[in-house]
Amino acid sequence: MVAASDAVGGAALAAARVWLVGGGKMGGALLAGWLGRGLAPAQVTVIDPSPGVVPAGVRTVPDPAALAAEPAPDVLVLAVKPQMMDAVLPAYRRLGGGPTVVLSVAAGRVIAGFEAAFGPGTPVVRSIPNTPAAVHRGMTVACANPHVTPAGRTTCDALLGAVGDIAWVEDEALIDAVTAVSGSGPAYVFLLTECLARAGVQAGLPADLADRLARSTVTGAAALMDQAAEDPATLRANVTSPNGTTAAALDVLMTEDEGEGEGKGKGEGLAALMARAVAAAARRSRDLAG
Ligand SMILES: NC(=O)C1=CN([C@@H]2O[C@H](COP(=O)(O)OP(=O)(O)OC[C@H]3O[C@@H](n4cnc5c(N)ncnc54)[C@H](O)[C@@H]3O)[C@@H](O)[C@H]2O)C=CC1
Ligand SMILES: O=C(O)[C@@H]1CCC=N1
């Protein structure tokens, strides 16, 4: 795993000409990060028939036909839904086989699919960011094909690293599990927050107080985990007094009882439930391969 140094990455980011296909939640979060880290708005073009909020100075076109006479960008970032990728790619075929790096953030869509769509020799990076990118706390994992040059990799590292942390992997097969853990993971944390609030109401709290407690507890625990030297298991142990209240709750969350018959799975602990959820997400990522 290699990350560009800040100075090298900053220079690569500032020099990049980028076309962003899909300016929705993920594309928009990336764009905000790039501009925040010094990419001039004039160097980015968003291609989207119905984009989210596009910052001032960034050109937006609804259709790539408007760009037919323009020189190829350094990086073509693909941030449309995986299911529409096949319909979108043919319009960009002319960018294949040259120096333009095709940088996908789409779940499931494999490097081989992009190589087939853009032709031999096309540099391709497959990556999976996550929505905390919107607040510069993203986690992205990326994988490059052999046609990506060191300079192309540095530029992609700078683009993806502009919204948070980045790791590179050599084995593309890992990306399905990455998608299931860090790509989809924020949703699991939000669900945990929702469940904690609902449980608080069931335990007698007013709804607004339960919401506040759940949210503040999750963000506070995340901040502690971010800053503390201890690992999560030690932080958990620090909350748990012998025979105290936390131990009573953890007995429920950590008891692995798969049950039998129709209600199977009802009594399983959080670890088994999370393993099943992550496996389902990874399976879905593999299903989305094009
Ligand atoms: N939302 C998330 O948490 C994550 C999303 N991703 C990936 O990011 C990609 C985008 O997802 P979201 O931003 O969540 O979806 P989104 O629906 O917010 O954004 C998709 C954008 O594509 C645009 N679009 C539709 N047709 C188009 C076309 N022909 N040409 C150009 N743009 C077009 C839409 O107008 C929309 O703005 C997906 O492939 C997803 O797998 C990856 C990691 C996390
Ligand atoms: O749900 C999805 O398919 C996308 C990819 C990871 C997060 N959102």
From TrEMBL:
<dbReference type="GO" id="GO:0005737">
    <property type="term" value="C:cytoplasm"/>
</dbReference>
<keyword id="KW-0641">Proline biosynthesis</keyword>
<dbReference type="InterPro" id="IPR036291">
    <property type="entry name" value="NAD(P)-bd_dom_sf"/>
</dbReference>
<keyword id="KW-0521">NADP</keyword>
<feature type="binding site">
    <location>
        <begin position="79"/>
        <end position="82"/>
    </location>
    <ligand>
        <name>NADP(+)</name>
    </ligand>
</feature>
<feature type="domain" description="Pyrroline-5-carboxylate reductase dimerisation">
    <location>
        <begin position="172"/>
        <end position="287"/>
    </location>
</feature>
<comment type="function">
    <text>Catalyzes the reduction of 1-pyrroline-5-carboxylate (PCA) to L-proline.</text>
</comment>
<dbReference type="InterPro" id="IPR008927">
    <property type="entry name" value="6-PGluconate_DH-like_C_sf"/>
</dbReference>
<feature type="domain" description="Pyrroline-5-carboxylate reductase catalytic N-terminal">
    <location>
        <begin position="20"/>
        <end position="107"/>
    </location>
</feature>
<dbReference type="InterPro" id="IPR029036">
    <property type="entry name" value="P5CR_dimer"/>
</dbReference>
<comment type="pathway">
    <text>Amino-acid biosynthesis; L-proline biosynthesis; L-proline from L-glutamate 5-semialdehyde: step 1/1.</text>
</comment>
<dbReference type="GO" id="GO:0004735">
    <property type="term" value="F:pyrroline-5-carboxylate reductase activity"/>
</dbReference>
<keyword id="KW-0560">Oxidoreductase</keyword>
<dbReference type="InterPro" id="IPR000304">
    <property type="entry name" value="Pyrroline-COOH_reductase"/>
</dbReference>
<dbReference type="InterPro" id="IPR028939">
    <property type="entry name" value="P5C_Rdtase_cat_N"/>
</dbReference>
<dbReference type="GO" id="GO:0055129">
    <property type="term" value="P:L-proline biosynthetic process"/>
</dbReference>
<keyword id="KW-0963">Cytoplasm</keyword>
<dbReference type="Pfam" id="PF14748">
    <property type="entry name" value="P5CR_dimer"/>
</dbReference>
<comment type="similarity">
    <text>Belongs to the pyrroline-5-carboxylate reductase family.</text>
</comment>
<keyword id="KW-0028">Amino-acid biosynthesis</keyword>
<protein>
    <recommendedName>
        <fullName>Pyrroline-5-carboxylate reductase</fullName>
        <ecNumber>1.5.1.2</ecNumber>
    </recommendedName>
</protein>
<dbReference type="Pfam" id="PF03807">
    <property type="entry name" value="F420_oxidored"/>
</dbReference>
